[in-house]
Amino acid sequence: APPEVKRVPLEQKQIQHPVGKRLVDIALKKKSNLIASADVITTAELLKLAEEVGDHVVALKLHTDIIKDFSMDFIENLKKIAKEKDFLLFEDRKFADIGNTQELQYKEGIYKIGSWADMITSHVIAGEESLKVFDNVGVVAIVEMSSKGTLTDDYYIGKALNVAESAPNVMGVVAQRKVSDDLLLFTPGVNISTSGDNKGQQYNTPERVMRGYHTDFMIVGRGIYQSANPKEVAQEYQSLGWAAYEASLS
Ligand code: 5IU
């Protein structure tokens, strides 16, 4: 059973990063700690999903490199929806190279992530200096993964957290447990209808991640975008997530 200890309310967190502050403001305004992962492969599906779930999420997480017909016009359209519905754009690029290569991957190529993303994910395996290249963005550092057999054991998590906590552009971490008081915590692997897939993913409920791990933001992919009614289901995750967050405060 999840530990019944109090957590620091979102509005009392000492958040340094401007993007972290924006995300928390949106969360408090919308009463949502939900990030939808839009792992669809066409821009039409993605824009439709953004319209449907936009009111219920604080951010939309993207893997732009899986989109068949990516273009900067698509990004312009997505930015309009994000502005209208008030959510951030979160590119889950999982950078994992030396600083110079990451800088090229972040700024150049087809996706030009640095020109539009509010937040990005990065591994910290290349060390603190490799993260310096991510400017004008909130970096979410991966310190632990959700999949079965991941190499992110306690030793790795401790070392990764040291890197994350010493890099000023890091606003949060991805983990499956409460790891830091200062950084925002993001937890993927959340689904209310299944416990995993046949490719190693492992799922928890919103209740488990909010009350057990004291995560700040839960990330839901297939649970929403593969459902028959993404808008309705996003609303359901939003209310489950927020209720579990409120329950963990008292
Ligand atoms: N994601 C994980 N686990 C992790 C990390 C990222 O699932 O440890 I780091 C991503 C992968 C996918 C989304 O884009 O979060 C989860 O999608 P599903 O809810 O469909 O499993």
TrEMBL record:
It is an enzyme of class 2 (transferase). Residues 33-237 form the Orotidine 5'-phosphate decarboxylase domain. Signal peptide: none annotated. Pathway: Pyrimidine metabolism; UMP biosynthesis via de novo pathway; UMP from orotate: step 2/2; Pyrimidine metabolism; UMP biosynthesis via de novo pathway; UMP from orotate: step 1/2. It catalyses: orotidine 5'-phosphate + diphosphate = orotate + 5-phospho-alpha-D-ribose 1-diphosphate. Keywords: Decarboxylase, Glycosyltransferase, Lyase, Magnesium, Multifunctional enzyme, Pyrimidine biosynthesis, Transferase. GO terms for molecular function: orotate phosphoribosyltransferase activity; orotidine-5'-phosphate decarboxylase activity. Its cofactor is Mg(2+). The keyword Lyase applies. Coiled coil: none annotated. In the N-terminal section; belongs to the purine/pyrimidine phosphoribosyltransferase family. Belongs to the purine/pyrimidine phosphoribosyltransferase family. PyrE subfamily. Catalyzes the transfer of a ribosyl phosphate group from 5-phosphoribose 1-diphosphate to orotate, leading to the formation of orotidine monophosphate (OMP). Homodimer. This is Orotate phosphoribosyltransferase. It comes from Moheibacter stercoris.
